[in-house]
Amino acid sequence: MNPSAQSEASPSVSSELRDATVRLAAAGSASPRLDAELLMAEALGVERVRVYVNANHALVDAALAHFRALVKRRASGEPVAYIIGHREFWSLDFVVTPAVLTPRPETELLVETALKLMASKASRRILDLGTGSGAIAVALAKEIAGAEIVATDIFRAALEIARANARQHGVDHRIAFFAGDLFAPVAAMTGCFDLIVSNPPYIRRADIAALPRDVRDYEPRIALDGGADGLDFYRRIATEAPDYLSAGGFVAVEIGAGMGAEVAQLFAEAGFADVRLEKDLAGLERVVSARRTARG
Known about the structure:
alpha/beta, Helicase, Ruva Protein, domain 3, Rossmann fold, 2 domains, seven-stranded mixed β-sheet, two-stranded antiparallel ribbon, 18% strand
């Protein structure tokens, strides 16, 4: 076989990446090159950095077929994290399935905020509401020595993923997982927590249809729908959280775009003090935090 025929039969990693990037961009991916690299790493069974090392290598038939099948799934709108079964968050690798919302980089600000709030606390009892994949709870358990964490979720399939992630990172002995709606599983634990964190559903119901296809059609609606105005869960958390916080305890929640003032007002009206808005790297208000007062 002459070299040109062999090249046509076995395209290089770099040429397949170029073709896949073009295809995914045309399909509407917001990060087509990154998507292609992650899918190539999966097809080759290597870490993403090794894709560059192998850039000029020819793809064997099995890897080529696998990669193209993965690209086809992504082009149809399926999220990369669901295709490859994992996603990085807080420099940790998390198992994800369609049972849980895909962890997002902007949620790391919620972890950062929680760590700052806990720095001044001698007690480290934390409640994570709507834990999903367990990304927030696991990240906090890894960062805060001696933290005792309770994580709740209404979806039992999500809790199984969260438990698996806690075991994978060696913190399952410090996180207790309970099934139920927000505070319902911890109804007997009033006044117990020094910090309550949550990334609740906050998409306005009428806006769900306009979400990107990979979010709208694949991610669990139960983790997206925040009610008519997107504030349903914030109202409940602001109202109920004081009962479960210790004196001077904190609450920190992730918020959707343009919700900062409304969510901050909900916590202020519920009697919280030191209500603060934190902006993410894009300059968007992303986290609201507040402190329980004696009146709360």
